[in-house]
Amino acid sequence: MKKILNRLNFKNIDLIIHPAAMPAFDFYNRTKLLFRSGFNKEIFNKSLFESDLIFNVTSSNKQIKIITGFDFPYFDIEKIDLSNHTIISFDESLSDIEIECFSWKSLLTNILKSSIDSKSLSELRTLSNSYIPKHVLSDVLGKKCLTQEDIAIITSRSRTTIAKQDQKIKTSNDFLVR
Questions:
Q1: Whole-structure pTM over 0.85, yes or no?
Q2: Which of 59, 74, 95, 138 is the most exposed place for a label (fewest CB within 10 A)?
Q3: Sheet bearing 63-68, strands edge to edge
Q4: pLDDT for 113-143, tens place per residue?
């Protein structure tokens, strides 16, 4: 069952990322988005994102476990003012696998709609294949890993562009090893 939490009840709440959503949270924070530096420099008005939805599983009146909604530019778990956001809460009947899938699908939907830095498409592929569970990739894309061709199709770039980025990363890694 889902419910919208009353914004007046957010004082003295312990806010954490749900353990099943932590890999998606880490993945998002490692993904290079085109406009992220602009957000980090606070060029944009933060109020643009105050209506963002945050989904969670509430374990008590004192703790909120976020399962998705951490993928907006100004999300900072230490500083977030929950009264500016709509919190949709699931009861605790969701399994960790359901939470993991919900978290990844929501994140991937938002990332694929975002402006991914075209210079880091190879890194996106590597991160995706390293972080995203195979069963989630299979559900979302019908395959267990992303190839250069997949990233090329998703981003409307050529496979050669992705291959060159892979080679550049390999060359710089080889240089670091020497």
A1: no
A2: 95
A3: 2-4, 86-90, 53-60, 63-68, 14-17
A4: 766 778 888 888 898 999 999 999 898 888 8
User: How many whole angstroms separate alpha carbon 174 and alpha carbon 178?
Assistant: 7
Amino acid 67: pLDDT:
87
Amino acid in the structure at residue 149 = E
62 and 95 assigned to the same domain:
yes
> Which residue range is the domain that position 49 belongs to?
1-115
User: 36 with 94, same domain?
Assistant: yes
Q: Report the C-alpha gap between 106 and 111 in whole angstroms.
A: 9
| Residue 122, token pair as written in the block | 């190879």
What does the CA dihedral 64, 67, 68, 74 come to, rounded to 10 degrees?
50
**Could you give the CA distance from residue 33 to residue 163 in angstroms, rounded to a whole number?**
20
